[in-house]
Amino acid sequence: MARSEHGISRKQIDESALKVLYRLSRHGYQAYLVGGSVRDLLLGRTPKDFDVGTDATPEQVKALFRNCFLVGRRFRLAHIRFRGNQLVEVATFRRNPAIEELPEDNDEHFHFVQNVFGSPREDAFRRDFTINALFYNIADFSVIDHVGGLQDLADRRLRMIGDPLIRFEEDPVRMLRALEFSARLDFAIDAEIITAIDQRRQLLSGASSARLREEIMELFRHQVAGQVCELAERYGLLDQLFPDLSFTPQTFELLKLLDKRTASGKKIRESLVLAALVLPSFLLQCPLDRDQHINDALAVADRLLRPHCRTYSIAQGIRCEARDLLVGCFRMLRGRGLKGETRFLRHPFTAQVVEFFTLWCQIDPSLNDVLARWQEALETGAAAHTGERRSPRRRRRRPRRKAAMQKA
Ligand code: ATP
Ligand code: MG
To answer: 156-243: what CATH class?
Structure first.
């Protein structure tokens, strides 16, 4: 598609990416903008990052840029750093290796992760969806389409490059990416993809848990987690993705509220994601009795979080923060005036609990009164002045410790 036929203007392209493209081109290399950025520019969206594809080898790229670092063990990529922590990733065109080129220690993601240099056309064909395989050529400002991606963009349709059955066997994470892009762009998923997901869905649970964990967090960063989880349920992928969790209709609602929260500009932490995934089940399993001990709630939270965290190798610190969010909600639900309230109100983490609980109140508005009472306590600074007294033991200890320090 020639320059005059598409709407991409160089003004929309990041300055650092342009510098890289021009410099490669001036030195006689092919230099294209590739991947998601071309798709987003054609859709009039702001790309998240600008990736560059070239026929220069990583070493040749390095020789051209002083601010270049080669990264990646199996497939070398060039990272070119600019002021303000800006980074442009430059990848040499690659192709899928032929069977006889596969090494003995072939791993499950070999097809996408470790491949060999190829032509631009081969590079387009190794990508996942047609709309993700468009190139913007800096030499003549044209858009190069080897896979029919422009037509699919016009039709707002997500289509796999090649046979989806084979592409999902090569890399099952692509099933999740299909749902993600359909939700992000509001594109229809091609019928062939849906049939293939139906036939290959059990492969997803065998995919690398590290990659799945990262793609799941991407759903939250892109504010489509609620929608994608609903799609995953419809297409039978939810159990594959979250084998240790049970979803209720409220889980989907809560995830959508998290998405809205992220859309308002707030950062999403994994602990909040975990807490939201688990909160409806947690509340079902945690009887709300004012006499119920916090330790019981802690045990329920742990029982629900541990298997999922084990499956995804999620660090203890993140799990404990999620547990504290859940138990904090439990504490708020029990109402005010119970043991430990002063400490809770003073604790720096409580602001996060209150924010989380406020989301839950949008789902269960009958809790708004409880919430209002807690907010009142927080706002009036009751934290510092409640009648709750320190235990005499602590009061006695303080001066002693101080005295010991002074002596030392
Ligand atoms: P965004 O960065 O906006 O989330 P993106 O399309 O750039 O979207 P990335 O995950 O950054 O997505 O991947 C960059 C490109 O790499 C994709 O556009 C696609 O062409 C290719 N790609 C990524 N993951 C895969 C995969 N699992 N299989 C095949 N190609 C992939
Ligand atoms: Mg990208």
So the answer is: mainly alpha
